[in-house]
Design goal:
Helices cover 41% and strands 14% of the residues. It contains 13 helices and ten strands. This is Aldo/keto reductase. InterPro entries: AKR_Detox_Biosynth, NAD(P)_OxRdtase_dom_sf, NADP_OxRdtase_dom.
Length: 343
């Protein structure tokens, strides 16, 4: 496992993040002993970045993470989130300062710690004023209860606006974003990833296996996923499975390695999940894989998305000719849109 800085910060995180959404509870989740074994395997491989949220398992995921990190709290980067509620009380959901403060206090108790390394707004609620959110985050950072803040599932223009506001007022800015991103679902390449690269924000990718659509294999569950997948997702899954067969790797390993190599952001951190130690070890093996140019070209072609207006318009030869005085071929502009793979 290698490490790097997360966005515009000095926070050092491992190149794969462990998702703990299902940890610590019976039934739909993974019981505590198995959850602990998975986290222990991840840590033994060098992983230090744990992702959870107050809503996961109605708090059981945070409790499982807290129990695990207790022996060496400062070794781990713990990320949790606030916004949604499983109940029907309108005051317990949303992005308000009130909800934020209550969520932090509850998360600290469940995690058994006095600080949260990375605290996310979990999703945009379309109602809370942005200055209320950013001032609330800054107060939490100033108090020491939160070290860094980030944004999950928030429109790019709101994140840009938030960081401009934070910079102008001397508040704690977002240092990273969390987005749905996989070889089969690449819409963040339109605005979110270019924004993150420009503003030096870390990028964490949830559902990097497209909800299981890219795991390959046979059986009723895989057949159901294939039947419900869009034509493009099916096309990407087919290419990934073919490359897996040719290279001797699993489809999951190829999908994770390919996502890390796409190159639309300097460094994308996939959230890897697992229901067993063996599954986690298999996913971690993606770090040992480098796909060749031909395989990446096939992956890029199958999953490429239409960037839409104004991106396609501004990248067209006729417009580039106008904006460079007919010198586009001689102008080294690193900011110019680039649809070609950069691996």
């Amino acid at each position: 496992m290698r490490y790097g800085l997360f966005g515009r910060s000095g926070l050092r995180v491992s190149e794969l993040c462990l998702g703990t959404m299902n940890f610590g509870f019976e039934g739909w989740g993974i019981e505590p002993a198995a959850s602990y074994a998975i986290m222990e395997t991840y840590a033994a491989a060098g992983g230090n970045f744990l992702d959870t949220a107050h809503i996961y398992g109605d708090g059981q995921s945070e409790r499982a993470v807290g129990e695990f990190i207790r022996a060496d709290r400062d070794h781990f980067v713990v990320a949790t989130k606030y916004t949604p509620s499983l109940g029907t009380d309108i005051l317990k959901a949303g992005n308000s300062r009130r909800t934020m403060i209550r969520s932090v206090e509850d998360s600290l108790k469940r995690l058994g710690t006095d600080y949260i390394d990375l605290f996310y707004i979990h999703m945009w609620d379309f109602t809370t004023p942005l200055d209320e959110i950013m001032r609330g985050f800054d107060d939490l950072v100033s108090s020491g209860k939160v070290v860094y803040v980030a944004a999950s599932d928030v429109p790019a223009w709101q994140i840009s606006r938030a960081n401009m506001l934070a910079d102008m007022r001397g508040w704690a800015p977002f240092i990273g974003i969390q987005v749905e991103y996989s070889l089969a679902r690449r819409t963040p390449e339109r605005d979110l990833l270019p924004m993150a690269a420009e503003l030096d924000l870390g990028v964490v990718a949830w559902a990097p296996l497209a909800g299981g659509a890219l795991v390959g294999g046979s059986g009723p569950r895989n057949a159901l996923r294939a039947a419900n997948a869009s034509p493009q997702v099916q096309a990407v899954a087919t290419v990934v499975s073919q490359i897996a067969e040719m290279t001797g790797h699993s489809a999951s390993q190829v999908a994770l390695a390919g996502l890390r190599q796409l190159g639309h952001h300097p460094r994308v951190l996939p959230i890897v999940g697992a229901s067993s130690v063996d599954q986690l070890r298999s996913n971690l093996a993606c770090l040992e894989i480098t796909l060749d140019r031909e395989h990446m070209a096939a992956i890029d072609q199958a999953g490429r998305v239409d960037l839409g207006f104004p991106h396609e318009f501004l990248a067209s030869p006729s417009i580039l000719k106008l904006t460079t005085g007919d010198n586009a071929d001689r102008f080294d502009n690193h900011r110019a849109p680039n649809r070609a793979p950069r691996w």
